[in-house]
């Protein structure tokens, strides 16, 4: 019997997903939809946020008319926080969530999570980070002990590849060509 190894995964991007208090009972169903959508759940925890923690988490919404109701709603019961990973995690998660107003989501994105699980603009069932930088901040807030590697992009990514990855690959492939081993895969792994 031949054992099949799964393809190695490199998660280029992570985002925060929150199942809000009024939808926590549907956690299993929502997690199943998340996994079927190609995400990997890196970490997950159930937590009860205090009104102060909610105010700090949603600090960018401070001063808006709905802010007090949002803090009260988010602290009304337990939530489930998850770190999701996949290629373009932030944008794919936002797409899966749909518009923040659940009523509009039902009209324009009927298969989105907010259309399915939300009830209105405030009680939209789930939260998602709006950008990579907000995802990093929100993940650190919900998972204080997590270590997040910065994701190099643009010139920083090219510099990293040229400085660290390409020379290693070149040396390994050159050695492989010179030796011409019977089992190149095993030799590459050993190298």
UniProtKB/TrEMBL annotation:
GO terms for biological process: cilium movement; CTP biosynthetic process; GTP biosynthetic process; negative regulation of oxidative stress-induced intrinsic apoptotic signaling pathway; spermatid differentiation; UTP biosynthetic process. One of its GO terms (cellular component) is cilium. The keyword Kinase applies. Residues 12-150 form the Nucleoside diphosphate kinase-like domain. It comes from the Eukaryota. GO terms for molecular function: nucleoside diphosphate kinase activity. Pfam families: Dpy-30, NDK. Keywords: Kinase, Transferase. Belongs to the NDK family. This is NDK5 kinase. The gene is Nme5.
């Amino acid at each position: 019997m031949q054992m099949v190894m799964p393809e190695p995964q490199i998660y280029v991007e992570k985002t925060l997903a929150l199942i809000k208090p009024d939808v926590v009972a549907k956690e299993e169903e929502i997690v199943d939809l998340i996994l079927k959508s190609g995400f990997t759940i890196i970490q997950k925890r159930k937590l009860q946020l205090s009104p102060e923690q909610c105010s700090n988490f949603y600090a960018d919404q401070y001063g808006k008319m709905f802010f007090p109701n949002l803090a009260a709603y988010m602290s009304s019961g337990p939530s489930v926080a998850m770190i999701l990973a996949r290629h373009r995690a932030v944008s794919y998660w936002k797409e899966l969530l749909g518009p923040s107003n659940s009523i509009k989501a039902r009209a324009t994105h009927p298969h989105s999570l907010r259309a399915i699980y939300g009830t209105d603009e405030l009680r939209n069932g789930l939260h998602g980070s709006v950008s990579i930088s907000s995802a990093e901040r929100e993940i650190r807030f919900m998972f204080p002990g997590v270590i997040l590697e910065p994701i190099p992009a643009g010139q920083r990514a090219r510099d990293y590849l040229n400085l660290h990855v390409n020379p290693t690959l070149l040396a390994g492939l050159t050695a492989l060509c010179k030796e011409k081993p019977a089992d190149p895969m095993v030799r590459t792994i050993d190298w």
